[in-house]
Each structure stands twice: as structure tokens, then as C-alpha cells.
Amino acid sequence: MVHANGDCPMDAAARPNVLLIMGSIRPGRNSLLIADWIATLGRSCSGLACEVLDLADWPLPMDDEPGLPHAGQYVQPHTRAWSEKIVGADAVVFVTPQYNWGYPAPLKNAIDHLYQEWRGKPAAIISYGGHGGTKCAEQLRQVGAGLKMRMVATAPALTLPEEVIRQHVALDPAKDLAVHVDSIKQAFAELAIELAAAA
Ligand SMILES: Cc1cc2nc3c(=O)[nH]c(=O)nc-3n(C[C@H](O)[C@H](O)[C@H](O)COP(=O)(O)O)c2cc1C
Fold first, then answer.
1. Per-residue confidence band for 63, with pLDDT thresholds at 50, 70 and 90
2. Mutation test of ligand 1: which of 99, 126, 134, 140 has the most ligand atoms closer than 8 Å to its C-beta?
3. Which Pfam family, any one of them, does this sequence belong to (predicted)?
4. Smallest CA separation from ligand 1 atom 29, residue
5. Highest CATH level, class, for 16-198
């Protein structure tokens, strides 16, 4: 149960932890603002512990593991660290922009460094773009299915104002994305159900 003030009575140490993995690493990105805003919303509506993960802090060179990821025999320290990070997450939320109808390469690279770590992991996709990024969300859902992730049905697709994309006007998520609050809450509610089922 979530209190009216947004606090969750659940013992903080007992809260499942959700990693919000940002798809964008480019300078000047909107993803930091968007992911932080979603994390705050997710904490208050679901009581889940939400941590924003910036892939810029997790440099994973392309294809630098000699073995296939499904064997889990990683030789690179950064892959081992990345594996531990994902194993330690109870669920993930991909918060990703759409780039040319797909999702960004750093996100695919981060996913492809691992394999078993994703299996059975409750997950949600929150995409954004001029039209919500639904095409990249579809692609990511397909990849998640291939990895046997437990994707929730609701995939909020956040529409960024034209002036934010074209004229670099500062995004104000609380105002510009307010229309999407209900669908984000719904995605977190579904994630909480998946987590309860997995416990
Ligand atoms: C390489 C690139 C490709 C893009 N392709 C699309 C697109 O296919 N559809 C769309 O709606 N917006 C597209 N955009 C606009 C992005 O939605 C917008 O720039 C958004 O802020 C990108 O997220 P970020 O700032 O977190 O990197 C693209 C932006 C970039 C940089």
C-alpha cells in the first residue's frame, strides 16, 4: 500500500530494486531528466526502489568477449561487473529514445554483453520521441522476448514536444509529460505484480 503522501510502508531494505536503464548516452540528452522523473514517479506510486543507470558510466566496448554470452564465461572485468549489476536487479525498466525507428546502439550492446542475466527478469519499456518511440519499443519488446524476459504489457510511449527536439527548448517532464503519468503508474503496477509473482 502506498500512503497518500507517496511514502511506502514497506521496509526500505525489503523493497525490490528496479534499475532504470537509460538508452541514450549522447551529450545534451533528455534521458537524464526523463529517467529521473520516471524514477521519482515509480518510487512514489509503487514503493519499489528505483535506481537510474546511466550506460555512459558503464563503458562496454563492442564485441570484446571471445566467448558467447550465453556461457557466462566472461574474461573482461567490465563485463563481469555489468553481469553482477544486472543479476543484482530485481527488475529493469528500459527508458529509451527512438533513434531512426530503432533503439540506440549502446543499449543493444549492453544487452548483448549478457544473456542468462536477463532471463526471467521482470521488465518494462518506456520509450520516448516525437511520436512516443513506439517503433523502438516494439523492437525492444521482441529482443526481450528472445531473452525470455518477463515484459509487462503496458509500454508508456512519451511524446516529446516538437520544440524540445528541434529547437532544444528545455524539457520540463512534470509539465510536458504529465499526460503520460497514468500509463507510467500502470507499468509500475504491472511490474510490482510480476515481482510479487517471482518472489
Ligand atoms: C540519432 C537520432 C535519431 C532520431 N530518430 C528519431 C526517430 O526516429 N523518431 C523520433 O520521434 N525522434 C527521433 N529523434 C529525436 C529524439 O526523439 C530526441 O532527440 C530525443 O531527445 C532523443 O533522446 P535523448 O535526448 O535522450 O538522446 C532522433 C534523435 C537522434 C539523436
1. confident
2. 99
3. FMN_red
4. 99
5. alpha beta
